[in-house]
Amino acid sequence: MYYYAVLGAMGGLIGWRLSEVGGYLDRPNIYLADLLRGAALGLGIGFTIGLAEGIFSRSILRGLRTAVIAGAIGLLAGAIALPLGEFVFQMVGGKIVGRALGWAIFGALVGLSDGITGGSQMWKGALGGLIGGAVGGALLELVFYRFRDPLLGKVAGLMVLGALIGIFTALIVVALSRAWLEVRSGKLQGTEFILDKFMGEKSHAAILGSNVMKSDIAIPDPDIAPQHARLKGTGNAFTLQDMSIGKGTFVNGRKVEMHRLSNRETIRIGSTEIVYHEKR
Questions:
Q1: What residues contact residue 264 under an 8 Å CB cut-off, 6+ apart?
Q2: C or N: which end of the chain has fewer Cβ atoms within 10 Å?
């Protein structure tokens, strides 16, 4: 939540700066201005929140890849949400609920990008972003009018918006997670990887390995193969399969080729210990 809040606030600041540089706010057509401003804000917030994946995995390459994807989705989200919010704002007679709705849609689509690039189910990221966008959008309007300097109020409001979208996206995803891995040793000690979107029987398997480009969960450990093990969902649990060819995959100290995981079992690949968590 801390990282998501800081990165979201930075994204709001970057998005404001992009919109100012482009002169989007001076457009004579208010809907065109909102479309361009929303695209800039979505790009900024989506990009910075996408960088969280790189921070958690300690991989610049993975972080940049997810940031580009999330930024592109955020750009589209803003271009859609802000003009829609302006339309509702005009329809309800200029009340704050119209703005809040527009920002809620904006937040939902930005949160959706986190579900696409991370390990959570997409609807959880969207729900978190929706709540964060609604709360942040209402606060944005309030913060804006609290400052004597309109420019300062605008910047502070957008940073609050970005921070709240980040906080609620992380909060909802974590609170509703059904399965995750907790790294207990090595460079990523303390890091958790959510597995929800891999849990379904028809979902693709999650590959654990050391290669950022060839694995879904990359762990920097020289003793781990590029594609070391495979987690396949069964609908309500996971089956772990060794893929390491000679290196071995261990569960509770026992070498396994195929194993159905249970809550709080310890997996060891290479020199890294990982605990599997499952919430019913």
A1: 275, 276, 277
A2: C
